[in-house]
Amino acid sequence: MATVYEINKGVNKPILFKGLKAQYIAYLAGGLVALLLLFAVLYLCGLNTFGCLFIVGGMGTALFVFVFRFSHRYGQYGLMKRSAKRRMPVCLRFSSRRVFKGLLGKV
């Protein structure tokens, strides 16, 4: 039996897939690829298969929990707005009046 997944692509609505919104789908996909590579590296380093599965399974569970939590808490653009707000300076300091003197002639 083939499973059919529906992706909501309405006008002016975020892309939804199984409860994930917008860019969180890409975050989850990238995390899963990274976990696959981690499993391969751990296996090639000689770690027991069950040890690899335990480590990657735990990290995969944490990845799903955090991505779904961020998707529900911040929504489509909230996480990007939060990171942009954290980069904004608290105040601007100027050591001279040259910046403000230039503004008078440009009005």
Largest sheet: 2 strands, antiparallel
Q: Report the strand count.
A: 2
Rg (CA only)? 23 Å
Strand content: under 5%
Helix-strand string: EEHHHH
Task: Explain how this protein is built.
Helices cover 61% and strands 4% of the residues. The protein is mainly α and 107 residues long. Strands 1-2 form a two-stranded antiparallel sheet. It has four helices and two strands, in the order ββαααα. The longest helix has 26 residues, at 49-74. The protein has helices at 24-44, 49-74, 78-87, 98-105, and strands at 16-17, 20-21.
List the helices and strands and how they pair.
Layout: E1 16-17, E2 20-21, H1 24-44, H2 49-74, H3 78-87, H4 98-105
Helix pairs in contact: 1-2
Key traits:
single chain; mainly alpha; 4 helices
Care to give the gist of this entry?
By secondary structure, the chain is mainly alpha-helical. The chain is 61% helix and 4% strand. Strand 1 (16-17) and strand 2 form a beta hairpin.
